[in-house]
Amino acid sequence: MTRPHLCQLRSAVASVAGLVMAAFALPHSGLAQGGATAPTAATLTPEQMDAAWRQAAAKTARERDALLKKVAAGDAAGPFRPDWISLRTWEVPQWYADAKFGIFIHWGVYSVPAFDSEWYSRRMYIQSSKVYQHHVATYGLPDKFGYKDFIPRFKAEKYDPVAWAALFRAAGARYVVPVAEHHDGFAMYATRLSDWSALRMGPKRDLIGDLARAVRAEGLRLGLSSHRAEHDWFFGEGRKIPSDVNDPRYADLYGPAQARLTGEDTGEADMTGDFTHVSPAWLEDWTARTAELVEAYHPDLIYFDWWISQPAFRLALPKVLAYYYNTQSRRGASAVVNYKEGALAAGSGVADVERGLMPDIQPRVWQTCTSLGDYSWGYIEGEQYKSPEKVIHLLADIVAKNGNLLLNIGPRADGTIPQQAQDSLLAIGGWLKTNGEAIYGTRPWRRYGEGPAQMAAGSFKEGKTDKPFGPEDFRFTTKGDTLYAIEMGWPEDGAAVIHALPAAEPVKAVTLLDGGAGLPVTFHQDGDGLHLTLPKVAPGDFAFVYRIER
């Protein structure tokens, strides 16, 4: 399979520069109508928008080309070929199948305004949005104060990666996945492909590198999240109004800023209806940036956000996966890729459901990603946080269906984690310290659970149940010959029934986990199930685990 080679970045610098100069010399160009910040959405073609970004990125062409050569070499090295038939032979590493619980971190320049969500950087340029109105009232018009102007305010002066890692371990997490680059294009790591990074601006330190060392020192696995793909169009709304997005001096930060053509525009509901302009140059830059993360930090996991399912990425993806899997294999290390929206062939990575669940036990390990905050992934003021009980119920349901939970937090711009988030994480960790044997290293039983309350399946449907969880609701996991039943509430009358275990399936012993040796439970079985006689007072909080020996 031939790779569309972007050595073009070096060889075509002169012609790119010519395109850009020609674009901004047009009679109706933004420059002609009012300076560098004048709107360009109607005056530049997609190719000219891409050319402006390519010119801005041309100075790092040597580094980019070197990374692309590493990808090509990695593809050729084996054992995986860059095709889906080969990639579907990939197997989930045991550590990941056993881990069950990870921490996701959305932290970046968008934490400075701390308003609405981590999509502030896009919505501040949409005149009809509440974010635009807030931005103008608070900071001024976006041609005077653009997103770039938040960067000096992003200082991370209280950032303590060692304390973060200790908190995540205390929370019971087994892997940690910070966002290395979000849709805003500002790298939180020591990139050599742009000056717009935390190493060169704002905090002026390698935030990802510091956390990577701390996380691994705690014995946790490191993942990295890349949202670079979406940056192709993320600032496109800024071209419709007077803003700094139109100024070619900032094209390396704002990217091509293409117009997004979604299913709403084309009549197709899924990603096959997304006809946003994606150039070969952009695909190779995305490939190089992914390779840079692999070469610099050797992550055990890479999480890609949903837009890699856009059709233009279909040929680039197997090359990136083969390179990553092969590179990690040569190092004797593991590799996992999280994906959404059917972006990868089934079995070539781990499917992720954003803020949602699977309907039943899945044959392959999968993952839910959700945020502790209900409103945003990044830090915002006035956030509403999920209770520890809600997170633990989610975790139990997900693990019972052969999944992992990746729970996000949003630190403040100064590097501190909100106290309410810390308290929730520690409460979750306390529950896992007592009940973790029913979570870590477990596998699904023949059924995921029982009870009247059912959680809705599908993306963005979390928390939607037909009724609240109670003591009649159970989730099941297994480890070897041991069955675990996780009860979602405590019965006030001291009696519980597990209908999945009638007398025809004899039980030898039942133990209520309590953080110590466990509390033996009196029981009997009949045709209706396993009847438990329990203390009147609950021995803990949130959910209650029975170890069942058969």
Describe this structure in words.
There is one protein chain. With 550 residues, this protein is α/β, with parallel strands linked by helices. It is 30% helix and 16% strand. The protein has 17 helices and 17 strands. The protein has helices at residues 8-11, 13-23, 30-34, 46-57, 61-77, 84-87, 94-99, 120-123, 130-138, 161-170, 207-217, 251-254, 263-266, 280-297, 316-330, 388-400, 419-435; strands at 101-105, 175-181, 221-226, 301-304, 336-339, 350-354, 366-371, 403-409, 443-450, 474-479, 482-487, 495-498, 509-512, 519-520, 522-526, 529-533, 544-549. The strands form 3 sheets. An 8-stranded parallel β-barrel has the order 1-2-3-4-5-6-7-8. Strands 9-10-11-17-13-14 form a 6-stranded antiparallel sheet, covered by helices on one side. Helix 5 packs across helix 14, helix 5 (61-77) packs across helix 15 and helix 10 crosses helix 17. The model is unreliable at 1-33 (pLDDT under 50).
